Predict the 3D structure of the following.
Amino acid sequence: MKRAVRVIIGAVGYMLKTDCAVGYEAARRLRERGLEAVELSGDVFTMIDELKKRPHDVLILLGARQAGRPPGSVEVYEFKPYRYRDEMEAADALRPSLEGRISLEDLLIGLSVLGPTAGKIYVVECEPPNPEPGVGLSPEGERCAEELARRVEELYTQLTSSPT
């Protein structure tokens, strides 16, 4: 008998940077729909330690990431770890997280440098409509959070309904 795939949903956000907090709002909406979503914050080592405490086969990460796309764009993709030329380049990539930045990008860097916590990692991300300092989501950020939640719920259902 095959065991069910263990999926964990991890939300990353930065509450003091307006729409960069969409991951937290999407996680709240997912919890209202009955899905467990872990809020990840802190430096990259703290976030990865939190993930390692929860056994999982598949990790779904959600949040905002500035990548130069149209504001509010949502992307879903399977994450492949970044490659670094050498240890120094990898260490430099970790630096912003250790200096206090909290972001989905930093967690992806951490998973690349320190090693993934799951066999498969999916990312559901939004180009933040308003990445400026501030508290609370813009109306566009609210729409982005809802779309993130919808896409994560869809992916979660797909992953948990197919045999491992």
